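Input/output pair, single chain:
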Amino acid sequence: MNSAFGSYRSPRTIALVGKYHSPEIAESLGRLAGYLHERGVAVFVERETAEHIGKQVNLSRWVTCGFNDIGAHADLAIVLGGDGTMLNAARRLARYRVPLVG
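Output:
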């Protein structure tokens, strides 16, 4: 679909970034990763997020990487957390022009 803002295509690679110290975020992130994976989307989990929530959720099925790799390869980043988590992700990914969804 083309629009005044350019063409649209479904994201094939989505990165997940989460608030590090939140059991609720861990569960939601794990469920979201599974949902995306079942629909054929490649899922990246930001490295620090994975290190902190990986103790609560099995993230071994997905690629763990830093913001540089997310910027280079992700079509979209989904941020789970509050304003601070979103602002941090936005600062780290702005130069790559990766769209963010909160």
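The CA atoms of residues 50 and 94 lie 21 Å apart. The helical segments are 23-38, 47-53, 67-73, 83-93.
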